[in-house]
Write a structure and sequence with these properties.
Number of domains: 2
Order of helices and strands: EHEHEHEHEHEHHEHHHE
CATH topology of the largest domain: Spore Coat Polysaccharide Biosynthesis Protein SpsA, Chain A
Strand order of the largest sheet: 7-5-6-4-1-2-3-8
Bound molecules: uridine-5'-diphosphate, magnesium ion
Strand content: 5-15%
Distance between the termini: 18 Å
CATH architecture of the largest domain: Alpha-Beta Complex
Number of helices: 10
């Protein structure tokens, strides 16, 4: 199979038939062998019913239905798990991403040997205040911390080699950073392609301004994970030793001063150095322990699913 299309959706009943028709046209025109995997992320409208109907007329349609809304990242994760095509393409279900980009994305992966090709909505059709400005800032920060030179991290339209999607573990809201996760997993041939973008035709956006706050927090996490995720002790141990050392120096100073220099002097507990020494040593020990706990967690972690599927075909 050449292509797996992974399409996460939440309450997109009006768009699904049109999207399906459009994709089928593109697939037939290019004679692709494909599967179209819809992941219903807890829709409360008729989305799941529509997907079932579509699968009746098209055997290449597959569906996964979540018990409740687990978020776009989990939906992608579930789709990635079952995807069998050599190239995996993710796209939004709201008709904002254009299926006609698929053949070229496929070419870039198979001919030019990219691990990932990320879409770049150079001309966007979203509201200016809610998106374009914060999104520039967001992408800039993501570029700075990840070292990946992408213009549009959050684009839903992306193409991957199959082994890439099997290697990344999309947790939290990390769908924005799959290229970064892939880079951390050792896939660094990451390209970008300008893609056509449409205004939302039906329904409404599922992410408000909160996406930027969550996005930045996730960015901080991903920066930390990529730097110290495999060895938390390297960070916490170093900081812990450093803090403890500061505390220890002050303690030695106080001791020497009390015993040999200033024998009749003030009570040690009345001196500021005492408190600096105390807190620094306690914090140092805590940091060191945090490092140990982190290492233990890493060694015990299983890759476990964080969603519940209630129906699948
Ligand atoms: N989506 C999802 N689960 C969610 C939120 C969104 O599967 O919890 C889907 C949504 O149905 C759409 C895609 O993710 O297919 C992108 O969402 P949306 O169009 O709302 O985002 P925007 O285009 O505003 O960035
Ligand atoms: Mg959209």
């Amino acid at each position: 199979m050449q292509l797996s299309l992974v399409i996460p959706l939440l309450n997109e009943e009006e768009s699904l038939k049109e999207l399906h028709g459009w994709i089928v046209d593109v697939m037939q025109a290019n004679r692709f062998s494909y599967e179209m995997i819809f992941i219903d992320d807890g829709s409360t409208d008729k989305s799941w019913q529509t997907i079932q109907e579509l699968s009746q007329s098209n055997e290449f349609v597959k569906g996964i239905r979540f018990q409740k809304n687990f978020g776009k990242s989990q939906a992608l994760h579930a789709g990635f798990n079952t995807a069998q095509g050599d190239v995996v393409i993710t796209m939004d279900a709201d008709l904002q991403d254009n299926p006609e980009e698929i053949p070229e994305l496929y070419q870039l992966i198979t001919q030019e040997n990219f691990d990932i090709v990320s879409g770049w909505k150079k001309k966007r059709y979203d509201s200016i205040l809610a998106k374009n400005l914060p999104s520039k800032l967001f992408n800039w920060a993501a570029r700075k911390t990840s070292g990946l030179k992408l213009h549009d991290f959050n684009c839903g339209l992306k193409a991957y080699k199959n082994e890439v999607v099997k290697a990344v573990d999309v947790t939290g809201d990390m769908h924005r950073y799959i290229p970064v996760l892939a880079k951390n997993a050792g896939f660094d041939n990451i390209g970008e392609k300008i893609v056509k973008h449409q205004a939302r035709k039906y329904g409404r956006t599922k992410f408000g301004m909160s996406r930027f706050i969550i996005g930045f927090l996730d960015l901080a996490t991903i920066w930390f994970i990529s730097k110290f995720g495999r060895a938390p002790m390297h960070l916490f141990g170093a900081l812990g030793v450093f803090m403890f050392f500061i505390g220890f120096v002050f303690a030695v100073y106080l001791g020497v001063d009390k015993l040999f220099i200033n024998k009749t002097g003030r009570l040690i507990t009345n001196r500021p150095q005492f408190y600096i020494s105390l807190t620094a040593m306690i914090i140092g020990t805590q940091l060191f322990l945090a490092g140990f706990l982190g290492e233990i967690l890493i060694r015990n972690r299983k890759k476990e699913a964080r969603y519940t599927i209630i129906d699948e075909f």
